[in-house]
Write a structure and sequence with these properties.
heterodimer; A: alpha/beta; three-stranded antiparallel beta sheet; 9 strands; B: about 325 residues; mainly alpha; 2 domains; 14 helices; ABC2_TM_bact-type (chain B); ABC-type transporter activity (chain B)
């Protein structure tokens, strides 16, 4: 494991001014019972992601029809199409039983990196190697606000790839865990934002994942639900899964994670023990 | 996930990666190999892809039904619109083309002729236009979950198929009202619908891929669809208008080309089955079967070729 640690610090050293020198990676300071614990599950190797964004025109280019026609005549490409270099050369290794928090400002590439780990965004260069299929806790994209909670549970479970028997088996558990009670009969558009978030988390976490990627899911919900969801994340880690957690809420990260990666402008600024990284992040 | 990594995924990732710059350390790619980790993005082979799609059949069906339920959930009449919309459409076209423009000359039982054409064409038109949006309109879903992307065009076409089943009930009732009597040929209606559905799925797979990159397609589609509508002989008989009574060879040749248009062929086929007075060109069945098989296989292959690129934005 020593060579990895050194390698990570070599990546971090690219960012000057970051207090990275003494930070050591803790692959697994909280050992779990599984024999696979400590072996790599996700390897991110010099990952670059470039997004193409449409409609990001500057004031001068902003389009009336005449401008658009002139561009066509002059054979200029579409100026609205901008490339955003969201992740710029990130490398790290995650292990069985890790819960890795990812922090950073808005637009620092956190969500993009998660999507790349999940295999949902093709890398521009570099590669992501994974053991099994990482899943993003993003079942809400399949859900429909006009439909009842009941229908959404079924739809969400199928969207995650369950079969009808599994859906039947998990249904009650999901309703119970979400704690929305009789609201399950009502359309989701009538839910409060907390209730919606609880139902989404309950559905998404109903399936066993090898590698689970959570993007800001725990920001909403009351105190009680936060505790429940943190317990469930811990359970997943105990089953030797790997959990990635993106959050702006730093206490959640501190309570849940055993390692924190700080992304800044698409690069790793710091990577290591939660206390050290969070302290540096807070003072930055 | 024991899938062979595709050459495309390799090429996209910039070939075998040269992980660490420092000498003497194990490159990350080697480490990944040692622990048997795989690239996250790889296009499955066609048989694997087909199997994955089959495993997601419950999702496809539930997604289609859910979209149908949510579509009318805000209107007072709700699901009744599934019947009202085709009825009102048929009424307007009958008023326009049957009564005002008098396009019914030379066509026996023009109301049945018109509404059959209208309903059959609407099914293909709606499948194709919604298929074109099935990828570009679902980027958040594609970026959040793993599933064979072909599930989306399939779900959209099946959603239209569910609506069609209701429309077919209306159509059969209307055709009976116009004086047609049921024949044994009516038993072949499901076969005709199956062929048309195969074509629709294939066409929407093609347009889903095109629409995922060509963002201007959605602006163009209404015009393409309207042209297609007029060229498909919905309001008039291609044979009657183009060839007329004289039976000119060259004109017959043009008409035969127009009947090769899949929409025209499926319309003719359905009219043949439903209306006793209607006699289509003898080759219509072959055209319909050809388009069904060709579109489904070709469209599926074409869609699968870009599987790992959907969601790139």
């Amino acid at each position: 494991m020593a060579e990895l640690t050194e390698e990570l610090s070599s990546v971090k050293a690219e960012e000057p001014g970051a207090p990275t020198k003494d930070v050591r990676v803790h692959p697994n300071p909280d050992p779990v019972g599984d024999s696979r614990a400590g072996t790599p599950t996700v390897i991110v190797d010099d990952l670059h992601i470039i997004y193409r964004v449409y409609g990001a025109a500057t004031e001068a280019e902003k389009g009336n029809a005449a401008n658009a026609l002139m561009r066509l005549l002059k054979r200029q490409g579409r100026p609205q199409m901008k490339e955003v270099h969201a992740v710029r050369g990130v490398s790290f290794v995650a292990h069985h039983g890790d819960a890795i928090g990812i922090i950073g400002r808005n637009g620092s590439g956190k969500s993009t990196m998660l999507r790349a780990i999940a295999g949902l965004l093709p890398p521009h260069s570099g590669a992501v190697y994974t053991d099994g299929q990482p899943s993003l806790l993003g079942v809400n994209a399949a859900m429909m606000r006009e439909l009842t909670g009941e229908r959404n549970i079924v739809l969400g479970c199928y969207a995650m790839g369950m079969n009808p028997a599994q859906v039947k088996e998990k249904y009650d558990e999901i309703v119970e865990f979400s704690g929305i009670g009789e609201f399950v009969q009502f359309p989701m558009s009538t839910y409060s934002s907390g209730m919606g978030a609880r139902l989404r988390f309950a559905i998404a976490s109903a399936k066993a994942h090898d590698v689970l990627l959570i993007d800001e899911a725990l920001a909403t919900g009351d105190r009680d639900f936060k505790r429940k969801s943190q317990e469930r994340i811990k359970q997943m880690r105990d089953q030797a899964g790997t959990v990635f957690l993106v959050a702006h809420n730093l206490d959640v990260i501190e309570e849940t994670c055993n390692r924190v990666i700080w992304l800044h402008k698409g690069k790793i600024k710091m990577d290591g023990d939660p206390k050290a990284v969070l302290a540096a992040y807070n003072s930055a | 996930m024991s899938q062979p990594e595709s050459a495309i995924a390799d090429a996209q990732a910039g070939g075998p990666s040269n992980g660490t710059p420092d000498k003497g350390q194990e490159p990350l790619a080697k480490l990944a190999e040692r622990y048997g980790l795989r690239r996250a993005i790889a296009r499955p082979s066609l048989p694997v892809y087909l199997r994955q799609l089959w495993e997601r059949r419950h999702f496809v069906m539930t997604y289609a039904t859910s979209r149908n339920v949510s579509k009318y959930s805000n209107s007072a009449l709700g699901q009744l619109w599934q019947v009202l919309t085709p009825l009102m459409n048929a009424g307007i076209y009958w008023l326009m083309f049957g009564l005002i423009l008098g396009a019914d000359k030379g066509v026996q039982n023009y109301p049945a002729f018109l509404i059959t054409g209208m309903f059959v064409f609407t099914y293909t038109q709606r499948s194709v236009s919604s298929g074109a949006k099935s990828i570009s309109g679902n980027l958040s879903l594609i970026r959040a979950l793993h599933f064979p992307r072909a599930a989306l065009p399939f779900a959209y076409t099946i959603q239209e198929f569910q609506q069609l089943l209701i429309s077919m009930g209306v159509l059969v009732a209307l055709v009976l009202v116009t004086g047609e009597t049921p024949t044994w040929f009516w038993l072949l209606i499901p076969v005709a619908l199956l062929l048309q559905t195969m074509f629709n799925i294939g066409a929407s797979l093609v347009l889903a891929r095109v629409g995922s990159t060509a963002r201007d397609l959605n602006q163009l589609l209404p015009f393409i669809m309207r042209t297609w509508l007029y060229a498909s002989g919905v309001f008039f008989s291609i044979q009657g208008k183009v060839v007329g009574a004289e039976g000119d060879v060259f004109r017959q040749w043009i008409a035969d080309i127009m009947y090769f248009n899949p929409a025209a062929a499926y319309i003719e086929l359905m009219r043949d089955l439903l209306m006793e007075s209607h006699a289509p060109r003898p080759y219509i069945w072959y055209v319909c079967i050809f388009w069904a098989v060709f579109a489904l296989i070709g469209g599926f292959w074409y869609f699968w070729r870009a599987e790992e690129k959907y969601g790139r934005g």
